[in-house]
UniProtKB/TrEMBL annotation:
Pfam families: adh_short. This is Uncharacterized protein. Belongs to the short-chain dehydrogenases/reductases (SDR) family. It comes from Halorhodospira halochloris. Keywords: Oxidoreductase. GO terms for molecular function: oxidoreductase activity. InterPro entries: NAD(P)-bd_dom_sf (IPR036291), SDR_fam (IPR002347). One of its GO terms (cellular component) is membrane.
Length: 260
C-alpha cells in the first residue's frame, strides 16, 4: 500500500491570493471541478475551463462572472477523441491569450465499466485509459514549458484509493489511477530542485458526484461528503500556501461544513 499524507480542506484563502495567476482545470464542469473552479476564481485566479460540453462550460462561466470574479476562459475539448497534436494547441492558445500558466489541475475522469480483468471490455479499457491517464500525460507534457516559466507553479492530479490500493474489480478506472500515481511521482522527481513546479496527487475521498452515483447508484448522496467540503484542499495546493507539498499522494480531510 502506498503511503498517503492527509491534507485538510479547511482552508479560507485571502481574496487575492491567486491574483494574476492562470490555472487550467480539466473536467471543469464536474462535481468537484466546478466547485474548485469557482473557489479558484474567488481567490483571484483567471481559470481556463476545459471540458467537453460547451453549454455546461458557458453555465459555469456565467456563475463565475456573476460572483464578481475574474473572467475565465473556455476551452471545449473532448479528451476521449483528442490526439497528441491537440494538446500543444491548448498550451499555445493559453500562452497567446493569457501570457502565462501557473497551475494545471487534472480533474477529468470517467468510470469505465467495473468488472473482473479477465472479462473486461476492451473498448471501455482503451477509452478509460485515454481519458484518465493518456490525456493527463499529454496535456502535462504540452504545458510543462509554460509552467517552468512561473515563479510558483503547481500540477495536481486527481486520484482515487482504488489506484493506490489495487481495488478488485476496479478495472481500467483503478489501473488508470495507479498509472496517475506513477506519473505523478516521475514528474515530481523530474521537477524537483530544478524548477518551481510542485507536483502532487490528491484523493478527495467518497464525494457526492455523478461519477460516484454511476458507480454506486443505490447510495444516498445526501449521506456523502459534498464537493464544497473538499474543494479547499485543491485550492490550497494550487497556490502559494501549498508549496510545502511535492511528490506526495494526498488524501483530503473534508471540512465539517460546506462553503461556496
Amino acid at each position: 500500500m502506498q503511503h498517503e499524507t492527509r491534507i485538510s480542506a479547511d482552508y479560507n484563502p485571502a481574496t487575492s491570493v491567486l491574483r494574476e495567476r492562470v490555472i487550467l482545470v480539466t473536467g471543469a464542469t464536474g462535481g468537484i471541478g466546478s466547485v474548485v473552479c469557482r473557489q479558484l476564481a474567488a481567490s483571484g485566479a483567471s481559470v481556463v475551463l476545459l471540458d467537453k460540453e460547451l453549454k455546461a462550460l458557458e453555465h459555469l462561466y456565467d456563475k463565475i462572472v456573476e460572483d464578481g470574479n475574474p473572467e475565465p476562459a473556455i476551452y471545449p475539448m473532448n479528451l476521449e477523441g483528442a490526439t497528441f497534436d491537440h494538446f500543444p494547441e491548448v498550451a499555445q492558445r493559453i500562452q497567446e491569450g493569457m501570457g502565462r500558466l501557473d497551475g494545471l489541475l487534472h480533474a477529468a475522469a470517467t468510470l469505465g465499466k467495473p468488472a473482473p480483468l479477465e472479462l473486461y471490455d476492451m473498448e471501455s479499457w482503451y477509452r478509460t485509459l485515454q481519458i484518465n491517464l493518456n490525456a493527463p500525460f499529454m496535456l502535462s507534457r504540452a504545458c510543462i514549458p509554460l509552467l517552468r516559466q512561473s515563479d510558483q507553479a503547481s500540477v495536481l492530479f486527481t486520484s482515487d484509493h482504488s489506484g493506490r490500493n489495487g481495488a478488485p474489480y476496479g478495472g481500467a478506472y483503478a489501473v488508470s489511477n495507479a498509472g496517475i500515481e506513477g506519473l505523478m511521482r516521475v514528474l515530481a522527481a523530474e521537477m524537483a530542485d530544478t524548477t518551481n513546479v510542485c507536483v502532487n496527487s490528491i484523493d478527495p475521498g467518497v464525494v457526492a458526484t455523478s461519477l460516484r452515483a454511476q458507480a454506486y447508484p443505490f447510495e444516498n448522496p445526501f449521506e456523502l461528503t459534498r464537493p464544497e467540503q473538499v474543494a479547499g484542499a485543491f485550492v490550497r495546493l494550487m497556490g502559494p500556501d501549498g508549496r510545502d507539498f511535492h511528490g506526495q499522494s494526498l488524501t483530503v480531510e473534508p471540512c465539517e461544513t460546506a462553503t461556496s
